[in-house]
Backbone:
């Protein structure tokens, strides 16, 4: 949300967060090409969502002048954030493994937006879910770094870019945003007690 706000605040830009429909992690070419059709040929339009990672190659091939950035956040902060975000119902949600809806609540939209893993470990459901999120974090950034090495229009920035004017300047330069408006926009800070 913070990145979407920062980009949306730029002159003439429209940046949304997790545009609907949510794209499934396993590539859906119809939905992917619908999103390409929406984005292609538009200037200063963006959307921020983690579920785009599997679609990056397809989007870079099909969308003219596309620039893609990925924010990298500390692993344990990601785990804590997702654990809190998915604990809002009983039983909590778990998007990172195939399950029957008994230990965790099924979520027909968001379960599809994340990859599924099967870890061969014996532990509590809570700790198992934490390990699934750690696996997701590791594999996600492994893929992001590979894409960054392969495509000059894909760049990984550390999450602190959101609150550092010098780093924001580098990001805006990569995105070809001239005369940027800087700001401290970190919207989803994890509150702990």
Residues:
């Amino acid at each position: 949300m913070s990145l979407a706000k920062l980009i949306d605040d730029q002159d003439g830009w429209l940046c949304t967060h997790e545009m609907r429909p949510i794209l499934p992690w396993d590539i859906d070419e119809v939905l992917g090409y619908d999103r390409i059709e929406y984005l292609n040929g538009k200037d200063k339009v963006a959307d921020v969502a983690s579920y785009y990672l599997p679609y990056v190659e397809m989007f870079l091939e099909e969308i003219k002048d596309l620039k893609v950035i990925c924010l990298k956040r500390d692993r344990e902060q990601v785990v804590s954030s997702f654990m809190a975000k998915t604990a809002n119902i009983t039983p909590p949600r778990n998007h990172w493994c195939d399950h029957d809806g008994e230990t965790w609540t099924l979520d027909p939209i968001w379960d599809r937006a994340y990859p599924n893993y099967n870890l061969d470990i014996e532990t509590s459901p809570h700790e198992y879910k934490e390990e699934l999120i750690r696996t997701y974090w590791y594999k996600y950034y492994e893929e992001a770094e590979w894409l960054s090495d392969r495509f000059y229009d894909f760049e990984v920035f550390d999450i602190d870019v959101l609150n550092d004017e010098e780093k924001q300047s580098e990001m805006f330069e990569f995105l070809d945003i001239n005369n940027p408006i800087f700001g401290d926009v970190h919207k989803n800070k994890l509150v702990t007690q």
